[in-house]
Amino acid sequence: MxxxxxxxxxxxxxxxxxxxxxxxxxPFTIEVWLCIVVAVAAVGxxxxxxxxxxxxxxxxxxxxxxxxxxxxxxxxxxxxVQNNLITTSSWVLKLIFFGWYLFSFYIYAMYSGxxxxxxxxxxxxxxxxxLQQLADARRRGYTIGTTRDSSFEETxxxxxxxxxxxxxxxxxxxxxxESFLPAPQSGIDMILKREYYVFINAQLNSVMKATxxxxxxxxxxxxxxxxxxxxxxxxxxxxxxxxxxxxxxxxLSEGGLVYKWAGDEVAGGSSSNRAGKTTGPPAITVQHLQxxxxxxxxxxxxxxxVLGGEMVLSKWCHPRDDRRKFSFTKK
Length: 331
What we know:
This protein is an alpha/beta fold. The protein contains 13 helices and six strands. The radius of gyration is 35 Å and the shape is elongated.
């Protein structure tokens, strides 16, 4: 009579918090940023072409004349939630502005909302939760291990095809001491010692070992489980104790005592978990916004260089006569 059922899982180091150095760019992907830049750069010349067509083809002489630079900068102002500086009586331009205003509203709302969440709530690296993710973890430098001479090793070793076979080939067979450890505690110690290590172990045992280490917050227990196993008591063949043990274990299981005891043991280490928890969102620091300050500095430096270049070109192309002419008026 089995008295407890549990599955196998993956144990690894707790996901690390992602760097928020360039958090101001994180709300959008590179493709979205490129599309926004292209849209802002193209809308100015497009509006200029439309205004010229209105004047020369549709005979709207009252249409104000704007340069492509003025139109582009005005549409950029709209994207930054600034007022529109262009007035027009043409319904063609009004429809274009209407579509651009909606586009700017969506971009601004999604950017500001996502940026607030990114800055207020820390983001973490993607954890290892399934066997399918072990191949990518191996490419990132992770070592995959399990208990030596255990049912886990025998299952992986005996697999001819499928995901178990793939996992077996991902292990370090040249240096077996790296992947095949003497005991589950060795796997827990290895995760604490090495940053990139994944240990295949029983779920309850993993939780218990991580809790007993006093550093539960440093471990991640995979969400996906596999290879379910039953726990029981083995007796000699023909032993009269087998039926007695089976009867007692059945009553313990039906009463829910085994799972309660397991839960109590896990909850007993909850005090160690509080050390890794934070109270509320952290304050926004200069590190989070250093990309924004970098853009500001880049703009100031660029404008200073351009100003210096204009001053040099102005003196070189338009030299002025510094000789002063004085006139004296006699009263």
